[in-house]
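User: Hey, my collaborator sent me this sequence without any context and asked if I could get a structure. I don't really work with proteins. Can you help?
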Amino acid sequence: MEYTCTKPSELNSIANQLLKVHTNARIFAFYGKMGSGKTTFIKSICEQLKVIDTAISPSFGIINEYKTINDQLVYHFDFYRIKNISEFLDLGCEEYFYSGAYCFVEWPEKITDFLPPDSITVSIEEKNGKRFINF
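Assistant: No problem. I've predicted the 3D structure and written it out in C-alpha cell form, which is a compact way to encode the shape of the chain:
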C-alpha cells in the first residue's frame, strides 16, 4: 500500500493504517534516505500505540525503550552509526526482536541478515516536499 503525505498532520492516520493492516506484526524495518522522515513517522506510530515516553531518534544510543499507558514496551533502533555486525551482536538486539514487543528499526540495511523473516518493510521516499510511504 502506498500513502502520500503532504503535511505532518497526516502521519497519525497513516500510522493507524499501518497498525491496522499489520495487526500481528511486531518488527517494522524503516527504509529511506537521511531526512526522509523515518523518525517522525515512528513518533506517529508511537502516538497510536499510546507511548507515554517522548519518542526521539536513538542515533547515538542506538536503542530507545518506551513504555505505553498499558506498561507495554516498545523498542526503537537506529543502526546508522554501527560500524560492523559484531557491534550489533554485542548489543543483544536479536533478543529484542523476539521479545514480542514492537520494534521499530531505522537503517535495517545494516543488519539485514538478522531481521526476523516476518519483519514488515516500510519505505519512505521524499519527493518535491511530499512523503511517499509504502508498507
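In plain terms: The chain is about 25% helix and 30% strand. You can pass these C-alpha cells on to your collaborator as they are.
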